[in-house]
Amino acid sequence: MKGLLSLILAIFFSVNFCEAQIRITPTNIDDWIKKNFSGQGVIIGKVKHSGNQLSMASFTSSTNVLQIPKGLILSTGTAQGSSGVNNQYNRTRAFGDMKFPETDADISKIIPEKLYDISIIEFDFVPLANSLQFTYQFGSDEYPEYVGTVYNDVFAFFISDDTSVKNIALIPSSSTPVSINTVNHKTNSEFFLDNNVFSETVIKRQIPLTTNTRKRGFLGSILYGIKSFFTPKQIEAADRVIIRPDPTLLKKVNQSLYRNLQYDGITKKLVAQAYVEPYKKYHLKIVIADVSDNIYDSGVFIEDGSLTSKKDALQPGFVNYPDYSKVVDPLLILEGKKLEDIIPLGFRENQLAQERRAEIEKLAEANEIIYFDFDKSDITSIELNKIKRIAEIYSKIKDEYNIRIAGHTDSVGALDYNFDLSKRRNQAVIEALKELIKDEVKILSSTEKAYLQPAADNKTDDGRMRNRRVEIIFVKK
Predict the structure, then answer these.
(1) Which of 63, 283, 324, 406 is most exposed, with minimal Cβ within 10 Å?
(2) Rounded to whole angstroms, how far apart are CA atoms 70 and 60?
(3) Torsion of CA 312, 313, 317, 321, to 10 degrees
(4) CB 129: neighbour CB atoms within 10 A?
(5) pTM exceeds 0.85 for this model
(6) Domain count along the chain
(7) Residue 206 placed within a domain
(8) What Rg do the C-alpha atoms of the chain give, in angstroms?
(9) What angle (nearest 5°) sits at the alpha carbon of residue 80, between those of residues 74 and 84?
(10) Cβ–Cβ under 8 Å, residues 69 and 82
(11) Cα 102 to Cα 117: distance, rounded to the nearest angstrom
């Protein structure tokens, strides 16, 4: 029975291992960037990469392992070393010698320590919209032992133009770079997935056994003491501190992640984002490096098709921009041409005219209702603010639109009286507009409706209040 149970468990874990895994495959970096990484609204130029070829590869992952199903890994060790059961707390593949640190001018602005095993992918690109983004996860075997130390393996996504360079691998809603020291089991843990199953264990050194039980006489004891005084004492071996799997930690981690990811920790899927100028040439540099020494591997997983550029009207100070995708060749911009030099003659003027027309039509939708107190035609200060807004809009669209107004009343009183009241309300609005605009206001028509076209039920106070009104409507000439 016990043998059958063991067989069933072995089959169960074997099946799950096959279903949930990370597959690493060698790839052509240039092809991956242009065909796999680049998505909507981004045109890629020449791709360059440096570092050991074994540090870069494509990957696929089951959804219950990584949060990114497909993409490219860039590592400080071998890309292949990131995959597999987490059976090493110190997974390491060094490509260089500790005697010969490497350099990178951009990373050195972020971190002052020595760098090793640097891997870089970089390329020029042109965004077709104002917001650029892509998604990634960062993992490392420096977790958790070296959190808060100088052994803080670094990665960054540097985006640059002719005037500035900035790292966009940031903690969400902050300006803090993502790193081992800033995202871990203690700090910003909501963005972290713990995969550590190792802990320190102290192995006590046992007390040496005494085997010499020979009896000595009085003279023998004196001679033994003299000998012991001149004989150097043997130093006992100290207790040993080792790192080994901890059953308690093993129960806490995601089993699919543990069986398939070698790193002891990894971030959740994060978004690198930057606001950019459409149809302008930029440079993106993806870089990772060992810090302070060349051991304990780290890696960044970048998602297929996630490099996109889309219009984002929530950008601070956003200004709408035309779509040049059908009239401009972005490859010319990659070659160094400026947008203004390759826009077809007359296109910008036509585009501006279309934008102006769309703006005017939108403004003309801003109709307004002016409300009045019972049996009054005086305009209150609150309602005057509405008329000021109408006057401001009219000054911008008066060449294409006139104003139509209609006065209304509630149902209290005789019809003739209410016709006269609605006329007085109309006149009050017209005079206010003339005073504000300081120009001739083109009133297409001014009609008095009295209580013949109520907007609400006259049986209630609220309904009667809503019926005491003048409607202002923009009408196209």
Answers:
(1) 63
(2) 4
(3) 90
(4) 19
(5) no
(6) 2
(7) no
(8) 38
(9) 120
(10) no
(11) 7
